[in-house]
Amino acid sequence: MIAPPFTDHALVLFSGGQDSATCLAWALARYPHVETIGFTYGQRHAIEMECRAPIRDALAGPGLGPDHIVDLAATIASLGRTALTEDVAITMTEEGLPNTFVPGRNLLFLTCAAAIAYRRGLRRIVAGMCETDYSGYPDCRDDTIKAMQLALNLGLQRRLVLETPLMWRDKAATWELARTLGGDTLVETIREHSHSCYLGDRTQRHDWGYGCGACPACDLRADGWRRWREPG
């Protein structure tokens, strides 16, 4: 059954990482009904999926709706190996991109999210893509998101809105946004429960949270924390 569209209902792409947790808090502060969607795709850091429930519990309220899980493991595995889905060293490719780039991943995520949003009557799709502090992934760029919004609206004949509240924020600004949205409580929730490390390492606790401390995702998160805590 397809629900009629509600202009102020949202679906958040929620991985269990810092950015998506901040986006979930952002959406809950704006919209009366917010649902979440997560994806399994054979990621090395699959532990991020276990981090989602504690964060949802911490942010639970009357506006938080159902969670949806989509399994894309077989689909993405068939598209080729990457350092995000295989146990290989993280390096730069000849194209100048890190080999953690999973071609088409975010495009698949947004397509699946749009299909669920269509059926659930959720007009707004909120995602944590950012091209300020990021690894250079082309499917995180603002132009890509705008193009996807157009394509999805044409293909579904529905006026969906793709919102990326972190697009022009660096990681220091993302930490500050979390504090603005939920004070020190939300910052601590993100530090303790979210997961962004590409290697799935939760054995080491740093000031900024858990991670190996050496992969590109940890580097970005740690640098953002340092700049936020020590401005200037």
Written account of the structure:
With 232 residues, the protein is an alpha/beta fold. The chain has one domain (6-229): HUPs (Rossmann fold). Helix content is 43%, strand content 16%. The chain has helices at 18-30, 47-59, 73-77, 105-120, 142-156, 171-193, 216-229, and strands spanning 6-13, 33-40, 64-71, 122-126, 161-163, 205-206, 209-210. The strands form two sheets. A five-stranded parallel β-sheet has the order 3-2-1-4-5, with helices on both faces. It has a two-stranded antiparallel sheet with strand order 6-7. Strand 6 and strand 7 form a beta hairpin. The termini are far apart. The mean pLDDT is 88.
CATH superfamily: HUPs
Question: What is the number of domains?
Answer: 1
CATH class: Alpha Beta
Number of helical segments with 4 or more residues: 7
What does the average pLDDT come to? Answer: 88
The proportion of residues in beta strands is 15-25%
Give me the CATH architecture, please: 3-Layer(aba) Sandwich
Q: What shape does the CA trace take?
A: globular
Query: How far from one another are the termini?
Result: 54 Å
Helix share bin: 40-55%
SSE sequence, one letter per element:
EHEHEHHEHEHEEH
Number of strands: 7
Structural class: alpha/beta
**CATH structural fold name:** Rossmann fold
Task: Specify Rg, calculated over alpha carbons.
Answer: 17 Å
What oligomeric state best describes the polypeptide chains here? single chain
Strand and helix map with partners:
Elements: E1 6-13, H1 18-30, E2 33-40, H2 47-59, E3 64-71, H3 73-77, H4 105-120, E4 122-126, H5 142-156, E5 161-163, H6 171-193, E6 205-206, E7 209-210, H7 216-229
Parallel strand pairs: 1-2, 1-4, 2-3, 4-5
Antiparallel strand pairs: 6-7
Helix pairs in contact: 1-6, 2-6, 6-7
